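dude i think i finally got it to work??
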Amino acid sequence: MALKFDPKLEPSGSRGSRTKQQKNDSGSSRSSKRGKSAAASSAGKRSKSTKGGKGAGSSSKRGKSSASAPAKGGKRKSIGAKAKQKAAKSTHAAQAELEKLEPVTSTPSRSTKFAKASARTTDVSTELAEIPLDEDAKPARSRRVGDVRARERAQRNRSRYIRYVLRILIVIVAVLVVIFGSIFIYRSDFLHVNNVKVKGVSHLTSNEITDLAAVPADSTLLRLDAAGISDRLQQNAWVQEAKVHRVFPDTLELEIVERAPGAVVRVSEKATWVVSTDGTWLSAATENDWKTQMRIIDVSKSLPQPISGSDCNDGGIKNALEILDGISDKLRKSIKSISAESSIKTSLNLKDGITVAFGDSSDIQLKEAVINKLLKKYKGKISYINVRVPSRPTFHAMEN
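look at this
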């Protein structure tokens, strides 16, 4: 640790020695300056003598000047050498005096610092020399900025590619898990069908629909043939549409849309059939159907035996169904039966005993308006109305 010098705390003896030392230093510096000036003057004189020698050689007295020039130069050299020796001696003496002084409070000089630095450098070089060299070691290569950036770019691309591959592998694994999991669940008894619910039936019963559906005993909600169940249900003429719904975890719901019965047709003296509003033969009519449904009688004698689920192709019956679909509810409620031998001979048999020759199903609203007008005007006085041509209606009055 370097100590700071305080002139107030320095003793008087040390001050005197310091002043002497400073005087010696100034004397040594002066002597060195004198030696330098003497050397410079000798060098200047030498240059002048050289120039003078050259000038003398060019003159006619070349021989004399050439002989005297070496002698003068030798004297000048001897004077410069003596001055240098004196300056060197004075410098060494000053350094010796400085070394004898106590270095307690003095600041280290530049020469001392230089000596310590050189000593450290020597020690470091010695230590480096003692380190064993690896003969197999390859010399270090310098790296350019472009090479470093290219290497970093390559590393980034490599890491990006690895992440991309990992994503693809994860997606593939997820897809395989979903596929094999679905297969396992599909083949297992998971989500087994335990309940069957039926909706939308009025003519058919729930048990009849369940029997028609014929759901296999080992069916599950995933392993269920919904299309096959729907086809089996629609084989019944009463079923117009069937929808199959899965209600998790174990219920199968059957939604049925039945065909609406349009009328009961007396096919023969012993056979009556229910025909739907869309002209499909549904089934043989029951006693309840004959009482509650509209009756179509007096059909063509050439009508073939109906088949459940088949279409009705008789013109008279189809014309009667179209009339029933086009007239108002008020007029329909007043009809007891319809005679439908043909489309032209279609007649409405009202409950009050009046027969209305309606004809084909054209101009239904106009014909109904004429019927209502005549019934209102001749209430209780007519027994027959003909509206086959609504612009020229006719009627028969009742006999008193």
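The first helix runs from residue 12 to 58.
im so relieved honestly
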